[in-house]
Write a structure and sequence with these properties.
Blueprint lengths: L5 H12 L4 E4 L1 H8 L6 E5 L3 H10 L3 E6 L4 E6 L2 E7 L1 E6 L4 E5 L3 H6 L9 E2 L5 E2 L4 H7 L8 H7 L2 H13 L6 H10 L8 H12 L5 H9 L2 H5 L9 H17 L4 H8 L6 H10 L4 H11 L11 H25 L5 H11 L8 H6 L6 H16 L6 H14 L5
Helix pairs in contact: 6-8, 7-9, 7-10, 9-13, 12-13, 12-16, 13-15, 14-15, 16-17, 19-20
This protein binds adenosine-5'-triphosphate and magnesium ion.
Magnesium ion binds next to loops.
Cofactor: Mg(2+)
GO molecular function, one term: nucleotidyltransferase activity
InterPro entries: Bact_CCA-adding_enz_type3_sf (IPR050264), NT_sf (IPR043519), PolA_pol_head_dom (IPR002646), PolyA_RNA-bd (IPR032828)
Length: 409
């Protein structure tokens, strides 16, 4: 396992040989405990960051001072980053920026962490320290705040979204009533979060095996009403039903895709203009915004493979966009022709129009804008024919058009 690799050992040993204590903390401990694949490896130590840096350099391990002020140094061994952070305690907080001081008290460091299952630490031998019953909570799927839920949310409202994210990935059974009540009362403070942080949490939440129960809780706690700077985001039971059907389909046709899931959730509630507005407000990347609103523009409406309208849409969306549309179509409508669309997209791939300006010059057409127009004419014909004509057929078509010297439309 990851904690026994020579690289990990070297990093841990260099800290303990330097007179410090080093333990794994956060998500990697939780996931190791549950036998899940780990994300990143976080290490906490009582040594100050300058000392950590010095020890790593002496041991010949590459290190980057990623956040010296916050006590973080990143060691890199065999391309694997280890984020090493000096134990901290909160001094004061205004709900957005925690002011921290270094400490050598492991319990103080654990107390600042959000959930009991995230407050575990583990030494190099695999021995876990658990101050808040986090081992049992992890195993039974209880997402519980360290300390008072309301207070912890007042310190940092991002924890509200983290709560639902962790519930989606690790929750079992009914959620903690105290936590839900606290989330409900603190949801009004969500607008102060930077949209980029909302985006990260939302996409991580949507990547869970089944995010629907958590989304349902969020919806009834009023989270979505507060989330978007572009106005309330609405979805209802219908959206959740659609999402459940999409998830069932993904199990057959793979893969789980957060953006597609998000679009599915809002399929009934948003038109193209809304989608663009919300996608931007949620700080989706440009590519994500494009995909999200492309899906919600509901392309292929009533078009099936074989229609010339269909080929025109397909030329624009390509196979990925067609499969997105078909997966959503299958989730929200009667199956109809959507399986044909997926089969078509899988067989066809990306259509490539290979005719070039050279081909026109070879035919002796005078260079200039007329060439572009002729090529576009041939391309439209080729799309209309379902991308079937090959290069020589397209050259032949171009020759015909040129010799006929037909007027351009
Ligand atoms: P992932 O698998 O998504 O990386 P993670 O638990 O490692 O899950 P991170 O966001 O990487 O989550 O944070 C690492 C650890 O830092 C958490 O396990 C938690 O202990 C602590 N932490 C992160 N964000 C907060 C926060 N907003 N408030 C309190 N503790 C936090
Ligand atoms: Mg992590």
């Amino acid at each position: 396992p990851w904690m026994a690799t020579p690289e990990t050992r070297a990093v841990m040993d260099c800290l303990s040989n330097g007179g410090g204590e080093a333990r794994f903390v956060g998500g990697c401990v939780r996931d190791a405990l549950l036998g899940r694949a780990i994300g990143d490896i976080d290490i906490a130590t009582n040594l100050p960051p300058e000392k950590v840096q010095q020890l790593l350099e002496l041991a010949g391990i590459r290190c980057v001072p990623t956040g010296l002020k916050h006590g973080t140094v990143t060691a890199i061994a065999s391309h694997i980053p280890y984020e090493i952070t000096t134990l901290r305690r909160d001094v004061e907080t205004d709900g957005r920026h925690a002011v921290v001081a270094f400490t050598d008290d492991w319990k103080e460091d654990a107390s600042r962490r959000d959930f009991t299952m995230n407050a575990l630490s583990m030494d190099g031998e695999g021995l876990i320290t658990d101050f808040f019953n986090g081992v049992e909570d992890a195993k039974t799927g209880h997402i519980r705040f360290v300390g008072n839920a309301k207070t912890r949310l007042e310190e940092d409202v991002l924890r509200l979204l983290r709560y639902f994210r962790f519930y989606a990935h690790y929750g079992k059974g009914a959620p903690d009533a105290e936590a839900i009540a606290a989330c409900q009362s603190m949801a009004v403070h969500l607008p102060r979060l930077a949209a980029e942080r909302v985006r990260v949490e939302l996409l991580k939440l949507l990547a869970a095996d089944d995010p629907a129960p958590s989304l349902r809780l969020m919806y009834s706690a009023g989270v979505f009403e507060m989330l978007s700077a572009a106005g309330a985001i609405h979805f209802d039971e219908t959206g959740l039903d659609h999402l459940n059907r999409l998830i069932a389909l993904e199990k057959e046709r793979g893969p789980a895709d957060p953006i597609r899931r998000l679009a599915c959730l809002f399929y009934d509630a948003m038109d193209f203009a809304d989608a663009k507005k919300h996608a931007r407000a949620l700080r989706l990347s440009n590519a994500e915004q494009h995909r999200f609103s492309e899906i919600l523009s509901k392309p292929f409406n009533g078009q099936q493979p074989g229609d010339s309208d269909f080929f025109l849409t397909y030329f624009r969306t390509g196979p990925e966009g067609a499969i997105d549309a078909a997966m959503i179509g299958l989730a929200v409508e009667a199956p109809g022709h959507w399986h044909d669309v997926i089969d078509y997209a899988e067989q066809t791939g990306l259509p490539r129009f290979e005719l070039r300006g050279r081909d026109a010059q070879d035919l002796g057409l005078p260079p200039g804008p007329a060439i572009g127009a002729r090529l576009a004419q041939v391309r439209d014909w080729w799309i209309h024919e379902g991308f079937r004509p090959d290069l020589s057929a397209c050259q032949e078509k171009l020759r015909q058009l040129a010799t006929d010297n037909r007027e351009l439309p």
